[in-house]
Amino acid sequence: MQVNLAYRWFCKLGIEDTVPDHSAFSRARNERFREGDVFRRVFERVVEACIAVGLVGGEGFAVDASLIAADANKQRSIAGQDWRRDRDPARSSRAVKEYLATLDDTAWGAASDVIPKFVSPSDPAAQWTGAHKGAAFFAYSDNCLIDVKFGVILDVEATRAIRQAEVGAAKTMIERTEERFGLKPERLVGDTASGAAPMLNWLVEEKGIAPYPRIRQVEAE
pLDDT digit string (tens) for 144-192? Predict the structure, then answer.
């Protein structure tokens, strides 16, 4: 923005205009828009535009999760059994307050009763995970529901990086997409988490959706 005239033109800034500080975006997200749904409404407006021009088939969906590394320092983490859920929210940081407020949410505190190996005191909602089969790290799961016709993302749900939460996110996204856009797929492609018996029963018996669990292939050397 400081040196690129094309960026200035796009943002309607003159050559001598002051460029807003980058922190204005994070402050707007964390303060001004935190309690609102403006980001959800913008996202859904884009999905509606994709549906209107025929980019969404609505017959086959896929669901998957990507790990997003959390801004949490492993060196400052504590053992999971040392984390106290009954701490005073009034004396806690914003991240801790938000986590304490979601302890009953199946995507966060109630996702599993298993005590994690490590907990970040500054960001306890982040899950300690070694899912990439490498060095473990704190992360979140970015769950996406995708229409398979052209790969349009229909919904997104953030959760802890834990399988139980990802299954719950898949249910939430399927039901929300049906409610918001009137779309219910005939089939759903998912990873091994979607092949669990309770999830299969929900898909087939309650929603009438044919499941296609994706089985990971392991190459033998």
Answer: 999 999 999 999 999 999 888 989 999 999 999 999 999 999 999 988 7
Backbone phi, psi, residue 132, to 5° = -85, 5
Question: What gap in Å lies between CA 79 and CA 133, rounded to an integer?
Answer: 21
What average pLDDT does the structure give for the chain? Answer: 87
Backbone angles phi, psi at 203, to 5 degrees: -65, -50
pLDDT at 191: 82
Question: Which token pair is 75?
Answer: 């060196």
